[in-house]
Amino acid sequence: MPRRPLAWIVTTARNRAIDAIRAERTRSGSEAARLRLLEGTASDDVDSISTDTPIPDERLGLIFACCHPSLALDAQVPLTLRLVAGLTVPEIGRALLLPEATVAQRLVRAKRKIRDAAIPIGEPPADELPERIGAVLAVLYLTYTEGYSATGGPGLRRDDVAEEAIRLAEALRGLMPEEAEPTALLALMTLHHARRRARVDADGALVLLRDQDRGLWDRAAIDRGIGLVERALRMRRPPGPYALQAAIAALHAEVTRAEETDWRQILALYDALMRTAPTAVVAVNRAVAVAEVHGPGPALEEIEALAATDALAAFGPLHAARADVLRRLGRPDDAAAAYRRAADLTGSAAERTFLTAAAAAMGPRCPRPA
């Protein structure tokens, strides 16, 4: 065993690269330049190879490396989700509410810029971590989202993906303990993950939050998540977007009966979230809270306005929310059409089965919407 295994691997890999290039019978100018660069840095002294890094977790280090500030934020996140988190282009598109073609173009442009501008992709020193934290948090959040609600496949969840995101969030919090948002993100993930067993029934069918058996929730995880939320809220004023989302999750998790949920406080938190980080998804979730506080009529007005935007026209959860308020307003035909539209837009078999059944429960089949 080498005394410094990682440095030995770096040296060996570099020497292998040199041998491979030398073995080529014809070389382009770029290959010759690569060879000169490698030979110029070659050394058999592994102790001369620096492998010091402030980031103890290798995968988290790769995420920080890919979130390079020379790239635009809208390129950093999809690039890292693809290269490090391993998400596919359709999964990234669903996470970012973007067409697959747009995601593919951003990936190509990001790789081209890295090549043409010779952007050094490597773990940043400790003093450069804060400028990358926003993109890193987004990558972890979106990775967890794919684990929480899978883009496709027979199951609702991908627990391996969710649990890896939680592990990385734990590592990030340990790396930056004085930053509030890593603590808040870990709280958010912990609280959502605590409900995972109740989100499907014995047959794997989706169970809505209001209908879940709360005896299946992991109370120890919920207690820890609430403690993390409280800590994050004490660390930063005003609270950041992940802290606000975690506070909403805590209000759902702390009550033992659905009817005890403090929807007025949840709506107030969504109002704050819309001021802090206004996104289309937040707007849809806020409309759901409006339905609980002010009734389905005002909620439908907000949902119809959102449905008219290009960003949300093909967003399945919006159509599911629209179906629910239409059901509550006594408009079963319109509700059934909205449920079927939501079912058409999901790649998850569990979600599609649930939504199709909900449409059927509205009564006789009505014509599909154009």
Compressed to H and E, one letter per element, the order equals HHHHHHHEHHHHHHHHHEH
Structural class: mainly alpha
Number of helices: 17
Mean pLDDT, rounded to whole units? 89
How far do the termini sit from each other?
67 Å
> Could you give the count of β-strands?
2
Shape: globular
Round the Cα radius of gyration to an integer and report it: 24 Å
Strand arrangement within the widest β-sheet reads: 1-2
**Main sheet summary:** 2 strands, parallel
Low-confidence stretches: 366-370
Strand content: under 5%
What percent of the residues sit in helical stretches (DSSP H or I)?
55-70%
Description:
- The protein is mainly alpha-helical.
- Among the domains are: 1-49; 303-370.
- 63% of the residues lie in helices and 1% in strands.
- It is built from 17 helices and 2 strands.
- It has helices at 5-23, 29-41, 58-66, 73-83, 89-96, 100-116, 133-148, 159-175, 180-193, 219-235, 241-253, 263-276, 280-294, 296-307, 316-328, 332-345, 349-360, and strands at 152-153, 347-348.
- The chain has a two-stranded parallel sheet with strand order 1-2.
- Helix 4 crosses helix 7, helix 7 (133-148) runs antiparallel to helix 8 and helix 15 packs antiparallel against helix 16 (332-345).
- The termini are far apart.
